[in-house]
Amino acid sequence: MKWFGNRAKVAPGLPIADNVPKHIAIIMDGNGRWAKKRGLPRIAGHHAGMKTVKKITIAADRIGVDVLTMYAFSTENWKRPREEVDFLMKLPQEFLSIELDELIEKNVQVRMTGWREELPEHTLRAVEQAVEKTKHNTGLILNFALNYGSRKEMIDGIKAMMADVQRGSLDPNAIDERLFDSYLQTAGLPDPDLLIRTSGELRLSNFMLWQLAYSEFWFTEKYWPEFSEEMFYDAVREYQRRARRYGGL
Q: Out of 18, 29, 143, 176, which one is annotated catalytic?
């Protein structure tokens, strides 16, 4: 069975085609708790969560989302037990080895937001191969936030701007929000219109603190491995019912 249908073709029960969020960001939370609830090791939850990534990527492409950012591994996640971290670092390799050919076929562009330096060689090799092979694709952007933390991202951006000021290539008076955007890891991507977080947690966990300034938030008690396409569409439909005023009336 192929992943993808026709983009922006709306079937009964799907969200309104002309008001779909351009960029949806997802904090995929609750894999370990899903596994524990079933008497399984935490790594079983992460493996189940990988299957949900596929389902939701299909769902996003089906309704015409332009960018789907998945928070896969944070800079704080290195504090977890070594066995769990090692398993998490194998998931991108496993996922892409299975799905990359169809991602290419369906015009999906894979990107990574985060720091490559700390990643194991096998993880980095798999991600960079996917990025390289899909870089000219013009369909859905599937952006993995991997070894990513928003505070570090902003501090690194400020340091880079300071260096440019010291070199004389940047006038401090020219610094504004748009310029700062260009120094962030997400440069070139629109800010998320909608943030989804699973597992009942109501916090951002150091994820896209700058970019989410005016995003709509949608939370669910469901754990990520049990998050379904219909729940995803529920979140989009809720987004479509809200009025985005950006501080105005």
A: 29
User: Which entry of 18, 31, 77, 173 is annotated as an active-site residue?
Assistant: 77
**54 class by beta-carbon count within 10 Å (0-12 exposed, 13-18 middle, 19+ buried):** middle
- The full set of domain ranges for the chain reads 19-149+190-241
Closest CA to 108 of 74, 138, 81: 138
Average pLDDT over residues 17-38: 96
The 10s digit of each residue's pLDDT in 144-169 is: 999 999 999 999 999 999 999 999 99
Q: What is the CATH number of domain 19-149+190-241?
A: 3.40.1180.10
Q: For the segment 70-79, what is each residue's pLDDT rounded down to a tens digit? A: 999 999 999 9
Positive or negative torsion for Cα 121, 123, 129, 132:
negative
pTM for this predicted structure: 0.93
77 classed as catalytic: yes
